[in-house]
Amino acid sequence: MISSLGQAVPIPALAPDFVLSFVILDLVIIFVAARSVGALFRRIGQPMVVGEILAGVLLGPTLLGATVFRWGNPPDFLHCDVSLANSIEPSITTCLFPPQARSMLGVIGQIALILFMFLVGLELDFSAIKGKARGILSVSVSVILVPLALGFAIAPYLYNAKFVGGFGTPDQASRTAFALMVGAMLSVTAFPVMARILQEKGLTQSVMGSTGVAAASIVTVLMFLTVAVAAGVARDASTGSLAMRFLGTGAYVAVMLLVVKPALRPLGRAYERRGSLSPEMFAGMLIVAFGSAFVADRIGINVIVGAFLGGIIIPAPRRAFFHEASKRLTEVTTVALLPVFLAFSGLNTDFTKLGVSFVGGISLFLLAGVAGKWIGGAVGARLAGMTWTEANVLGILMNCRGLLVLVAALLALNSGVITGPLQVGAVLMGLITTAMTGPLVDSFLPRHLGTDTSSAQHPGRSEIA
Question: What is the pTM of this model?
């Protein structure tokens, strides 16, 4: 058994001590690959996460799977004959990352996402978004509705055995579920990357910057709600059960903002008296993060939304809290834990499944993804009163996918709505849009807009997505 990001696999007969050994070995392999490839990409001016995503793919079946290299006689110490089910061919990937160890890596990856999104929510500066409700609403609506509309527009062209889960079987995903899931993947924005770029350019407090970050956070919550609805439609969930999920989400958000947040005010007062974050205070923050993630997961809107909301409700002084919490969590999260999730995603990504016949569909998917977010973000920002120059830059930033599209794609794959090749397309979208964001912002951002980079000093944040 594994979490919602994992895949159902046969339980192998590895003894528990062997499972632990494999997990430890796998962590070593992941750390070496992630740091090596990530550092290479950072040297060429790309976010480290682009290299870490690619490192995960290289560890998977794309390069080391049975399609490329079938391991006919693996070393005895790997116990491939014991760890692999009869339906799994031995390869470097399957022998080094057996099913039980992979399950544990999936759990570790989700813990990484919880801590990561908690920090992102904690970093959100409410003072910067006061009085900008019109702009935030305009951008949020544009960058969720345009990609969703494009998702429904291109879904009929992709609705075939290449991309639809269970096609031709009783488990075939419906047209509505598939279109919703495609639209959700197209609507993803990696707003942590956006926030980091804005910090580096000294634009965090600008109208464009603060509006964009707030809008992207709203879009992330709506995107996961769309994924949840699509998964429910795929399971033929009743209208009543879907309505209950929305009602449950509304009640959950209301309780967090109106009950839990006021209850945490003593935490803020205790911090102000002490002047530093005590172990008890730090533990309390983690309880909020994981407790909120648990509730969100049970409602069906993903642990990421819960962790993010947990960060949002932490009381003042938020900047001081973020500064201390990030010192304790950023390195262990971004250096040690997030690469595990990226590797887990890579282990489920197989580029060898793609052939010439897939090129048209994947290209259409990528084109719709870039156009929907870039144009949607730019138009929404322009309607909010920004100049076309600012609106264009904001559209570029909204187009960045980072690791969040990997999360959405894994959820879509494991819910049976999409196939492996379309999940590979989502990985491609994450790589391409994240890599193109920095150079495009540098090309289109006027020099006079970004002059103060003093606010960009958050160690390690440049490495995250």
Answer: 0.84
